[in-house]
Amino acid sequence: MDAQSRGRADEIDPADQWVLNPRTGHYELRLDRSGTQGQPPAGTPRRRPAPRGATPRGAAPGSRGAAPAPRGEAPSSRGAAAASPKAPSTAPSPAVPGPRRGEGPPGRRTGRSRKGGGGGSRRRRILVIGGGTLAFLLVGGSLAAYLYYDHLNGNLSVTDVGDAGTGGFKKDQPINILVIGTDKRSGAGNEGYGDSGSVGHADTTILFHVSKDRSNATALSIPRDLITNIPACPTKQPDGSMKTIPGQKGTRFNTSLGQEGRDPGCTMRTVKELTGITVDHFMMVDFNAVKVLSTAVGGVPVCVEKPVDDKDSKLKLDAGEHRLQGEDALAFVRTRHAFGNESDLDRIKTQQQFLGSMMREMKSKETLTSPKKFFSLAEAATKSLAVDSGIGSIDKLTKLAGELKDMNLKNVTFTTLPVLDNPNEPPGKKATVVLNPAQADPLLQMIRGDVSLTEVEKKEQAAKDAADAQAKAKQDALLQGPRAAAKDVRVDIYNGGGPSGSASTTLTWLQNTKGVARAGNQGNAPAKLEATRLEYAPNQADQARALAEMMGLPGSALQMGTADAAPRTPMKLTLGADFKGPGISMTAPQKAPEDIQRVEADKAICAK
Q: What pTM was estimated for this model as a whole?
């Protein structure tokens, strides 16, 4: 049975015929005709859809319905949510495009199952994702409430980024996903937005940090015009060989992608060097994704405080509430002349408001229970999404989704990496920004220390606080007791993830400013560490406490062995990715600076 052709025969949208079976939790196709195609003869009464639980005519006994639509056919967009009365009546609503890869690779099942005669149904794989949509919703897209069927694998674009990421997240550790929105002008009608030949830059970049206990998340926007250093980037070439693209100092962050052949792995490496946070995975979409995904969800609600008429982005809105999709949605996230002081930083705020609204729309009952939106979103999202090989399949994305599905939107906070105008540019011609260490350092310490920027539910918070207090008390106990004199501290220093030359600068600092003469530089550690670690023996505890006080190490950094060390044996200090310089405290603050910019994902606000 061909679901698409049979549905069309009676002028019925196949997506309208999918219903949720409360016994199984699966969507099932309910059709009433037996397989004939085309319009019924004149005067023939239209049959009512089969009641729930009924077996369609012609189906094998026990079959739940017809097979799914063939690969490559997007669900109909007819019946999408209507725009608000205040929305422009001429707002375009482009259809979701076909798949990038045609009908799929040879050998993959691309249509209905042929088991059990004409009515056998294909093996269903209903992949619950729910809160897992949060990650790449941040650039205006979603995998919908569910991902369905194996054929969605063929829609994904996968990039091997080598060791730029971790290769996989761990259940008992925080998850860091880099969401990249590029300015690549792919898709029909997008050439007019600028450089039609652009390979795409890291135009919108958000580091999505999910807490260890999965109760909260922080979405950190990184300004595209931030002046930073781009490290050397090994990239896989089309022929399978590896090529290292040289690093570059003092350049715009957005050139970490696309320029000189840099891939998303290079953006991941740049983010790690900038923030000290290792990225597990990346997800990337372009201009066209904003259009098709906003259309697939039925429009995204937005609010503007004043009328908007931006000739550059072609955004024209009356003051008040609107529901935007397609071209209008893209214009809204692109505009930089409609709100605030017309800077890229104000555009980031607008994008965060839009993405928060899309997340609320995705979590709404209307979306989660609509078969039409179910299919449209699943198809549109997977066709628009590029990911790393660590999550390059529906199965892997589903496992990631399982980690995120229960998160409450009120515990998701957007913020922006604090920056200042570039002091090296003349007044009145400020085009780039630089990091603001006074605000950025404590904010990044909080993210590295897995400290939430928003309050989680009271019950969850109470349990988390109790566990944290118990762990902290145990760690702090290691810091209690006598301290050895600086001249008696013996330590070997390794660089296991800190900035280049960290072991050398720490050695010099300890010797010249702290009087630790018995320290040695051992160069690079055998393996990278996220957090700095001091390993010592029980009979070296007084030395460890003294060094921890000098270095500003938290109790969690101290790791005591079980056996005493021989005389004159040095302790082992390995500087991790959290190390920013000798004497700079690595204890994460429990509260963010008061004046950092933030947007709460569960709150609707009007763009100013």
A: 0.64
